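pasting input
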Amino acid sequence: MTFPIKNVALFAIMAGLLVYTGMTESWNTALGLFNMCLISAIMALGVNLQWGYAGLFNVGVMGFVALGGLAAVLISHAPVTEAWSEGGLGVIVALLTGAATIVLATLIMRRKPHSRTRTLALLAVLVGGFFLFRALFDPSVLAIEKVNPAATGFLGGLGLPILMSWPVGGLLAAAAAWLIGKTALGLRSDYLAIATLGIAEIVIAVLKNEDWLTRGVKNIAGLERPVPYEVDLQNSPAFVERANNFGLDAIEASTLFVKANYSLLFAAVLIILLVMFQLALNSPWGRMLRAIRDNEVAAEAMGKDVTARHLQVFILGSAICGLAGAMMTTLDGQLIPGTYQPLRFTFLVWVMVIVGGSGNNIGAILGGFLIWYLWIQVEPLGHWLMGIVTSGMAEGSALKDHLLQSAAHMRLLTMGLVLLLVLRFSPRGLIPEE
Amino acid sequence: MIDFLNAIVALSNFVIVPAIAYGSQLALGALGVTLIYGILRFSNFAHGDTMASGAMFTIFVTWWMQSAGINLGPLPTALLALPFGILGCMILVLFTDRFVYRFYRAQKAKPVILVIVSMGVMFIMNGLVRFAIGPGEQRFSDGERFIINAREFKELTGLREGLAIKTSQGITVITAVIVVALLFWFLNRTRTGKSMRAYSDNEDLALLSGINPERVVMYTWLLVAALATTAGVLYGLDKSFKPFTYFQLLLPIFASAIVGGLGNPIGAIAGGFVIAFSEITITYAWKKVLIYLMPEQLEPSGLVQLLSTDYKFAVSFVILLIVLLFKPTGLFSGKTV
């Protein structure tokens, strides 16, 4: 890995932007931005692996990120014992029945020759299995959701440390990716795009509607933290004394300290991933991937299993998005299914990868930082701009009010513009592939 | 016998009529997607937002007409405003093509690059629509609400179940039939339409016989603008206009186009109805119909709803997967790139 002066300069500018925010707004804002920049960079790494190194078009990033968030809840939330005793077993039996139905149907498909009896048997298994599943599932779910609906009304999680949810989030996302990859890879590239778009919407629909699993739109707040709480720090005399030595008051110092802890955790993950990626991509495996991307036919002629490699990369990249999703939910401390928006979680990550430089991990990281920074900072900029544009207009005129209100939508416009400009004038991104 | 009629009426009221209307809207949307795919050879992710833009132009003209006292009596004013909305949308897409897509066409960029470019266009259109009309829900329908409402139908027939047909549903179907007839007449009978089909079938051969590609592309965009605006306005009249729902329509629309066979106009229409009927039958609570058909002791206790309405995206997705698994080129074989 080499660091040309240009790359160092670009990262220096990025650091400068964050420091500038720290000095003009507050260091809390800057650190908060930095944390989300780190998470965005990890998502961008995942998408870059799929797009930049294998040419796979995944527009379901949101779904994988949300699965990571689900993992954070399932691992760290304390189990709701009453709900478990009411309907936990029923739900598990029902889910197993559902899975068994699908396995049985697949077996019939695979083992039996094509005939009318097979089709009928298949239909009977699927329809019968579905009604059996619903008959087992519905009463248990009702029972679970009746348990103290204002506070719980769901099964809860395993009550394990939340850090464990990070790899689990990756695994959940990987499983979903395997399912899609198995069906849509090997077909045309557009099909994969539509399939991923679909699975993302379904994951969000499940999170919003399966109250027994995630409390749905009632949200889950107050997840456990891997770092200390501000209040505890403020009550600890040792911490207050140290803060005073730095010339900070205890409240500000505690919030900064917590955010800095998160930064360290996230940065560690990012660095580990980056090193692993660089090693893997400079190995024979990485060269094979690039060869497949650049000329599938030639690679196939050399005996490389293109579809298998694509599936591998698709699963890996999605797992990284899931990991990032679990990290984000850990940072937020809550899961709010309604906040998962495709423009924000799928397409924005794509802008990061394209702007940063597809096929270059350093570029993807830079893209993650820069685009997240812009995404957040464009809104105040829009308000400021609109303030100037409308300054000459009469107070209280309808147009002025409308323009001032609409400033918030400037960010979508800006992102689109940035994407189109980069694609047009610098299609290889800020830090192109080496 | 009466029970059977009641069941039929209930079924029509809650499943068949809404599904025909929704299917027509999807078909119009899928036709736009499939035309772009056939001629320009990429999946246009900005299509949902093109629909939203066209609908937005129409809504502005409708509001202006309503304030000026122009109306169509029992029909919604939006129909009168539709041509202006189409015009606005045509200008918008031609502008986009000139300043965005043309550059990549000249470069012979790979289709997937064009898809990413269309993502950028999607962001911008989405931003513009939210900027101009706001992210909230807008109502712009007026005129009579029903062609026939449930009470009148009950009085007319003496059945227990009522059948209501909304004006918007009737207009949707009639407009869709007219638009599709015009489109097929254009594609099959006119010189430009024939050159478009030739270009779609075999680009090199078409170029060789002197077809001007830029002209073909321009006409494609004009058709797409007309189809997208009509679909957007009809959907908005039937349900309501909200920028985000138009973005979400992208999935069922693409599913319709792919299920029918991408690049095949007849397939797009068939796909639209397949998706619409499956979405509505699977998320409908069948209890009301079954009560009439089943003997009393077998009457269902639950709602007999296979999936809750929130999973309607899952339905289009599963149908899409099934078709991809067993017939990757769609029901009516489309083209592959």
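fyi The two ends of chain A are 10 Å apart (CA to CA).
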